[in-house]
Design goal:
Strand content: 15-25%
Number of strands: 23
Number of helices: 24
Radius of gyration: 38 Å
InterPro entries: BLOC-2_complex_Hps6_subunit, HPS6_C, HPS6_N
Distance between the termini: 143 Å
Helix content: 25-40%
Protein name: Hermansky-Pudlak syndrome 6 protein
Pfam family, one: HPS6_C
Length: about 675
């Protein structure tokens, strides 16, 4: 023993967890309350997380001053990496504090609160010691955190990539990244875990090694694929540091130190690539959906059955073209080689996509955004050119939620949306893409789990990034629907819920309502050109007393159909009878009068909607807002002087030289 140093300053302090982080020591210590009769709430927060610099000199080890990271906190297990420290709740004794993890970044003086399974992440920079109080840190998040479920942690360890490996009591292995996000890796076998079934975790390069009940699992961290499962001769195992060797594992047991190599020789006995396995799994789902048999279809049956040749052919092509780049066509059948030449463009696209994913992972922060936009565009385009089922729709929802701006750019690119010289929105998308946008699972099929159909996703993007284009986009989709589906066809989207109503539903889900949203609602109603929607927009404008716009809408949409013309004119005539706001626009309104309306019809509408006077009416009111015959006279004259429809029908008979016409000659 060369030297001992006192880590804690308080005589009554007790260390419960300690780790080495760079040139510092980080620990969690218990500071018992001075009053022995303190209540349980105070006792639960009697811990403190501290750090001290550790300097090795010729005279010996010297410790720096104690710096408090967090005080008045519950008990934490501290696990360190080179740039950050994970604080894992040690017990589930206090309900709220066992629902989240803490991640401390010493260089940035930042503390991140994360509840990975719930997707909650909140970071705060600790500028002063007063901000290090645990209860003040949680003050703004307690209400939200109280609704989360407690963390399910059986075992925790830090990976060589800086992530926190967590094993749940159900056997699920997840990794929490330094930014607070969580990713699932693998599920261990053996059912629920207890405190009597310890789990050992260690990462070697991209390989995760787990030992549970004498069984060694080797798992690829990136894909979650089980590489190998090995039964050991002993149950108690401790992993040793690899010292740069990432292709072997050193294990300390009661009988000695053992080395296990998991590097594979490049021969035919190597396991199949993950992509090939995915081909067979996808084929299983595809054929199972279309099978009339109740028997379960498995990957083994697909490989050995010989009935389904498509997945076998695709797997052979992928193995030769993607994983043997030097000899891509070696050993392929002639039919496969022909198929390979047909698929060469698709394979090239796949390889470029994989390369792009690698660039996203390895790129510096300032380049990540551009790579993500390109990646999202390729993914959105790929999904739009495949069958949009519930899984693909859920995937698209997650893309639009995680990368809204990139998804908006991808949508514009896939639909080829742009403005022409007249400022009108045009789309040059193919009919197949339009069908994917308007078809696919609808709201009643996807349920109420937060997933919305693709049309609603695109409308939400328009509202967020280019709201002025939304009515034009709805109009474009209606034009495509009218070409592709018969009117009110049950197969088409208009046979379910009209597109303008679906767009209005997206607008209604906005959190904050503004005047621009009211204007957007009017534009969506009018762009549909449906009689009910146009009349609804007209009534909204009347309620808002925007009389100039009322007259413009009436003049424009009265030309669509005689029935709509009659409804619009009757509505405005009723308004004209009640107040004098429309008097400046009478020269524009009277020409809109339908041909079938007579003077009796007009007078009936006017008398029906006259305002009820509180007193007996007088001939000349001082208010000047009464309807007079003089205001109605131009309309009545116009109707009276208009030629009767029946006169036009019988004009030829009335103008004949002889009346009645001569009797036609009889045929003998």
């Amino acid at each position: 023993l060369l030297q001992t140093v006192e880590l804690c300053q308080g005589a009554r302090a007790r260390i419960v967890s300690v780790c080495s982080q760079g040139a510092s020591l980080v620990w969690c210590e218990e500071r018992p309350p001075l009053d022995a009769h303190s209540d349980m709430s105070k006792c639960a927060f009697r811990f403190c997380v501290c750090t001290r610099a550790l300097e090795v000199r010729e005279q010996g080890v010297q410790l720096g001053t104690v710096r408090i990271v967090l005080h008045n906190s519950p008990e934490y297990q501290v696990l360190a990496f080179s740039q950050h420290v994970f604080l894992v709740p040690a017990t589930a004794g206090f309900a709220t504090t066992s629902k989240f993890l803490l991640i401390w970044h010493p260089e940035k003086a930042k503390l991140t609160i994360t509840a990975p399974s719930a997707g909650f992440i909140h970071s705060k920079v600790l500028r002063s010691s007063s901000e290090s109080d645990f209860r003040k840190l949680l003050l703004g998040s307690v209400g939200l955190l109280s609704g989360f479920a407690p963390l399910d942690i059986h075992t925790s360890a830090v990976s060589n990539g800086g992530g926190l490996l967590l094993v749940s009591t159900k056997g699920a292995v997840n990794v929490v990244e330094p930014d607070g996000t969580q990713r699932h890796i693998f599920d261990l076998e053996g059912g629920p875990l207890t405190h009597r079934s310890p789990v050992q975790l260690k990462t070697f390069g991209s390989i995760l090694a787990c030992v549970l009940a004498g069984v060694l699992y080797l798992v690829d961290q990136n894909s979650g694929r089980l590489i190998e499962k090995k039964i050991l001769g002993m149950k108690e195992v401790h992993f040793l540091e690899s010292l740069g060797e990432e292709d072997s594992i050193q294990m300390l047991t009661q009988t000695g130190i053992y080395s296990f190599s998991f590097s594979k020789p490049e021969d035919s006995s190597r396991p199949e690539p993950c992509l090939v396995e995915m081909v067979f799994e996808e084929a299983c789902r595809y054929y199972q959906r279309r099978s009339l048999s109740s028997s379960k279809l498995t990957v083994e049956k697909l490989k050995k059955g010989g009935v389904f040749q498509a997945p076998v052919a695709l797997a052979a092509i992928l193995q030769h073209s993607l994983h043997q780049k030097q000899k891509p066509a070696q050993g392929l059948q002639d039919s496969y080689a022909k198929l390979l030449s047909t698929m060469s463009l698709e394979l090239h696209s796949y390889m470029s996509l994989e390369l792009l994913k690698t660039c996203v992972v390895c790129a510096p922060e300032n380049e990540v955004e551009s790579y993500c936009e390109e990646l999202v565009e390729q993914e959105v385009s790929r999904v739009l050119h495949s069958d949009i089922d519930k899984d693909n729709l859920t995937y698209l929802n997650s893309i639009f939620a995680s990368f809204p701006k990139a998804a908006w750019k991808a949508t514009r690119s896939c639909l080829q949306l742009q403005q022409n010289g007249d400022g009108l929105l045009v789309a040059r998308a193919t009919p197949e893409v339009w069908k994917k946008v308007l078809g696919g699972p609808q709201q009643e099929e996807v349920g109420q789990n937060g997933v919305v159909p693709l049309f609603e996703l695109i409308c939400a993007s328009f509202l967020r990034f280019k709201p002025k284009w939304l009515p034009s986009f709805v109009e474009l989709t209606q034009q495509y629907v009218s070409i592709s589906w018969a009117y009110s066809s049950k197969e088409g989207p208009e046979g379910r819920v009209p597109l303008y109503k679906r767009a209005l539903g997206v607008l209604a889900r906005k959190n904050k309502r503004s005047e621009a949203d009211d204007e957007m609602e009017l534009e969506l109603l009018l762009c549909s050109k449906r009689p009910k929607a146009v009349l609804q927009a007209l009534h909204l404008l009347i309620c808002l007393k925007r009389w100039q716009r009322v007259v413009e809408v009436a003049e424009k949409f009265s030309k669509l159909s005689p029935l709509l013309n009659k409804e619009i004119f009757t509505t405005l005539l009723a308004e004209f009878a009640q107040h004098r706001e429309l008097d400046p626009y009478l020269d524009t309104l009277w020409p809109l009068c339908p041909a079938e309306l007579t003077t009796s019809d007009i007078l009936a509408v006017v008398l029906q909607h006259l305002p009820h006077a509180q007193e007996d009416p007088v001939p000349f009111s001082s208010e000047g807002n009464q309807l007079t015959v003089g205001l109605l006279k131009p309309l009545l004259q116009r109707v009276v002087q208009r030629p009767c429809i029946q006169d036009e029908i019988y004009s030829d008979a009335l103008q004949s030289p002889t009346f009645p016409p001569p009797t036609p000659p009889r045929e003998h």
